[in-house]
Amino acid sequence: MEKRDYYEVLSVAKTAGNDEIKSAYRKLALQYHPDRNQGNPEAEDKFKEATEAYEVLSDADKRARYDNYGHQGLRGGQDFHQYQNVQDIFSQFGDFFGGSSIFDQFFGGGGGRARQRSMGEPGSDIKLKMPLTLEEIATGTDKRIKLKKWVVCDTCTGTGAKTGSGYSNCTSCGGSGEVRQVSRSVFGQFVNIAPCANCGGTGKVIKEQCGTCSGEGRVKDEVTITVSIPAGVSSGNYIPLQGMGNAGRRGGPPGDVIVVMEEQGHEHFTRQNDDILYNLAVSFPEAALGTDIEVPTLTGTTHVKIEAGTQPGTIIRVRDKGIKHLNAHGKGDLLVNVTVYVPTTLSIKEKTVIKELTNIESIQPKRTLKGGSEEKPRDFFDRVKEAFS
41-57 b/e with 16+ CB inside 10 Å = b? Predict the structure, then answer.
């Protein structure tokens, strides 16, 4: 579904200041908060939409790119951000209003679940490299990736407990999740507070473990995910896929998948920012007389005109045949670097034909010696190598 204009979402003008934007978001966040609209997916979508709009318009850099290029200007690199669920919003904006969360104040603790002690441990992130060809970078592509990772156990739905078993308070910490150790020294009494090792700081222990996952709440499995790579990325750019990493232990929040771009070398092209450099070898007659030559591009072929008398090292620019800009409209160019091909082996007949050219004055390069006199013509093969190497 096409995204709505962020200013329209928050019902503010494009000239709105930070305070007006913040106030508009607060109003919508309260109106569509999940605790006021339980079982209403439309309200949850509006809550996410308002948060996404606020995240962009409250950031000066993102807002400038959005004003200039719209939603396309926010795609790619670390600017990819999609809220997978409302919990992601709580974790990032839970303290949006300062002090204790307004969600707690307004709903009597509804937002408190964002800070509630989790029964499990967070899952780890998965970082992987994504090799890309220049052709894929030029137009963008979708990549399917197979991952072996921790996933939520279907038998116990991630709790780690056998069905009907549940949890009980940890006897080591009395359900507090913390243990205190008191020590004394010449400086006085010290109290060290640490997470309980028996329950992992949750304050709860499983009465009877799930037989499928042995109490982990997760199992190893292979999954396939699809990553949309935008055009114009470079090596080192990355895309965070939130919540798609390893599942947390015993219901803990999942980690992320961090996809890092890795540009591969190309057989014919060299990348210079969003321009593509191609070395085109032409023969001496083609350079001298001019011609029209078909050359490859990243998406097919195109024709370039070699003007009569074209010199080695001439750069011919073909517009919009390069790589699409990542955060802007338009494309780079194809830069054709003209070189002159000098054969290394010739037949007797070919040598005879070429040597006849030595009597033509106009094709002989003029050289000046240190003394100021003109250098005498040398063997044609030497002149060709010097003129066109």
Answer: eebbebbbbbbbbbbbb
